[in-house]
Amino acid sequence: MIRIAVVGTGYVGLVTGACLADFGNRVVCVDVDRAKIARLLEGAIPFYEPGLKELVDRNRQNGRLRFDHDVAGAVRAAQVIFCAVGTPPLPDGSADLSAVFAVGRIVAANLGGGYKVVVQKSTAPVGTARALWGRLRRAAPGGQVDVASNPEFLREGAAIETFMRPDRVVIGAETARSARLLREIYRPLYLIETPMVVTGLETAELIKYASNAFLATKISFINEMANLCEAVGADVQTVAKAMGLDGRIGRKFLHAGPGYGGSCFPKDTSAMARFARRHGERVRLVEATIAVNRAQHQRMVRKIETALGGVRGKRIAVLGLAFKPETDDLRAAPALAIIDGLLRRGAKVTAHDPVAMDNARALPVGRRIQFAADAYAAATGADAAVIVTEWNPYRRLDLKRLARELRRPVLFDLRNVYEPADAERAGLAYHGVGRGAGPAAGAAKAPRAAKATRAAKATRAARATPATRARAPRRSPAAKRARKR
Predict the structure, then answer these.
(1) For residue 192, what is the domain's CATH number?
(2) In terms of C-beta density within 10 A (0-12 exposed, 13-18 middle, 19 or more buried), how is residue 21 classed?
């Protein structure tokens, strides 16, 4: 049983500590934030992650996991120290490494008790692990400390599954002794034949950035294709499906929408662009990915504004605040950028999210909007409903009821959850992302003479004010026949 200390009890640290304890190790999770440790000791989990509380409770009861605020004491007793502190972005986009090196100073002052490995779990720019190792070797010239890099690839909302059944484990280690110790920690994963990639420090660090940048690029690429689909009358859902059937491309992360968000992609792409420039290189594709993503947020605002004929004074129901389902994480969430854009244009916003509303209330933008008990309450009296996060409850909405609750039956489906034809049958004017071909996407197009669909009629009705609809003269039957000809 290996004695492990995990420094930092944020998302990565708490998930890592609980899962390593479940592997049979003896783990202490430590944090200088005494209030956070006190909440953990009371059984509270500081963020939403399915299954995490049960995992933490089980391993605490079994004596394999505990919490403490004594970082120095935990370091002295540990064989392996996982550094899982935050590396938030600075104003220039680079990563703030102050917490990483603060942990290094604590380790350097507490190197008694035999050989130790400090494992950089936090995502940090290439070269960080070697810089940390250099500082520690100066403090312990006898070679009793090594530094390794073990990047995390957790997916929020499925963190336990991705830790317990990962696609791969990456170990950056410069000594056989440190590599052997990390392999031993992850030995339970050998039973499910998890690939182990053992490499150098810099390569391990770059693997994390390259992986996240590539996934972010796929998202920005399909969003660019969605915008093109709207311009030429194609359907991005069919385009993405056909692309994904090519084994060289793959179907994952080809889902058009309002852009990516969260704690990883925005931060890591910006940091990568920054440290590449510092080394005299440009990652132009990554820089373009960042620019496309920012533009996609604003494109969604313009889409809503254009379809409604302006949003000033109108109430918009926003469904979904977290950057993805099954998390309460609002960091760089597209919903926040979209809400801010709508508010700046004079709209009123009522929002709902299954788990993230408490976090949203604490933000500046959250103090400028209203919150509702459910999706239908948010839609009541609104001029449009906007699905921003594809939570399961929003995938099973009663669309007819939604249409009745709305003052104007307009649905902006920014995750393409619904088929346009289903929404139209429910009486909604439907606006997806990249659904330029309309409800018959992929099928033969109807003759031009019959192109006025129910969705188009509903859209015209949504744009018109009640007074405009009252003034509109009725066409005579003869006039209608003439117009058809």
Answers:
(1) 3.40.50.720
(2) buried
